[in-house]
Amino acid sequence: MAVQISPSILSADFARLAEAAAAVPNADWLHVDVMDNHFVPNLTLGLPVVESLLKATSTPLDCHLMIEDPDRWAPAYAEAGAGSVTIHAEAAKAPVRTLRQIRAAGARAGLALNPATPVEPYEDLLGEIDMLLLMTVEPGFGGQKFLDVVLPKLRRARALVDSHGGQVWLQVDGGVSAETIERCAEAGADVFVAGSAVYGAEDPARAIEELRTLAEKKS
Ligand code: DX5
Ligand code: ZN
User: Fold this and answer.
1) Which atom from ligand 1 is nearest to the alpha carbon of 42?
2) Which entry of 57, 129, 198, 200 is 20 to 30 Å from 25 by CA?
3) For ligand 1, is residue 117 a contact (CB within 6 Å)?
4) What DSSP state is assigned to residue 137?
5) Quick check: is 33 catalytic?
6) Is 36 one of the catalytic residues?
7) What sign for the dihedral angle of Cα 114, 167, 33, 12?
8) Ligand 1 pocket residue status of 126, Cβ below 6 Å
9) From the alpha carbon of 146, which atom of ligand 1 is closest?
C-alpha cells in the first residue's frame, strides 16, 4: 500500500478550517478529531462542523471519533459523507454492528486502539474493518510526545493484518513528525496522521511532502 498522509486539523485555526483544508492540496485525507470531553478530557467539534467542512473541500474526511457513545453517533458521520469513520474499541459497546453500519453508509470503517489496549483481542474483527488506528499518544491533545512503547504492538499489528490478506490499512496518530515517521513506517504503518508537524510548519503542503518522502524510504 502506498504511503498516505492525513493532516489533523486539530492543529489548524478552527475559525479558518476551509483555508486549512486548502493549504494541503497534496493531503490524501483530512483528519478530523471529534472529542466529547468524556472519552477524552478535551472538546472539539461535531457533526455540524463536519457537514460544513464536507462542502468546503473535496479532500476526503478521515473522522476519528474520540467519544463515549460511538455506536450512537458514528453512522451519522458516514451518512453525512465522511470517507472514513474510526471508532475507539474502548468506547464501542457494539463494535461489529457499528462498523457494519459505517460501511453500509458507504464509508471506510476504522477501529482505534489506545496505547495500552492490546491488538490481539481484535484479530477476529479484521474482516469488519478497513483501517486499524494505533494511537501513539494518549488521545485528547495535539503536540504530545510520540510513545515508542507502541512500536512493538505496531509490528504485531502489521503481522496480523498481513496474515489476514493485508487489505486493512494501518494508521498511526500522535506525535508523528519528521523525527518519528520513519520508525512508524519501518514497523508497518501505511497511513500517517500528523497535526502539529503539518499545521505548525511554515508551509504545511511542503511538510506533508517531506513526511511522505521519509515514510516511503522506510516502507
Ligand atoms: C490526538 C489526536 C491527534 C492529534 C495529533 O488525540 O487524535 O489526531 O491531532 O496531533 P499531533 O500530530 O500534533 O500529535
Ligand atoms: Zn486523531
Assistant:
1) 6
2) 129
3) no
4) S
5) yes
6) no
7) positive
8) no
9) 14
Q: Sheet containing 4-7: which strands, arranged edge to edge?
A: 4-7, 191-194, 169-173, 131-135, 108-113, 84-88, 61-66, 30-35
Spacing of C-alpha 184 from chain mean position? 14
In CATH terms, the fold of domain 4-218 is TIM Barrel (3.20.20)
Tens digit of pLDDT at every position of the chain (219 positions): 799 999 999 999 999 999 999 999 999 999 999 999 999 999 999 999 999 999 999 999 999 999 999 999 999 999 999 999 999 999 999 999 999 999 999 999 999 999 999 999 999 999 999 999 999 999 999 999 999 999 999 999 999 999 999 999 999 999 999 999 999 999 999 999 999 999 999 999 999 999 999 999 998
The response to whether residue 193 sits with its C-beta less than 6 Å from ligand 1 reads: yes
Half-sphere exposure of 64 (CA within 13 A, CB side): 31
Q: Is the CB of 95 under 6 A from ligand 1?
A: no
Q: Specify the residue for cell string 485525507.
A: 29
Tell if the pTM clears 0.90, that is, is over it: yes
Ion ligand 2 contact residues with beta carbon within 5 A: 33, 64, 173
End-to-end, the C-alpha distance of the chain in Å comes to 9
Point out the catalytic residue in the list 28, 33, 62, 190.
Answer: 33
* Total residues belonging to the chain: 219
Give the mutation target among 5, 9, 10 for probing the ligand 1 site: most ligand atoms within 8 A of CB: 10
C-alpha cell of residue 29: 485525507
Candidates 181, 81, 195, 61; CA nearest to 140 is 195
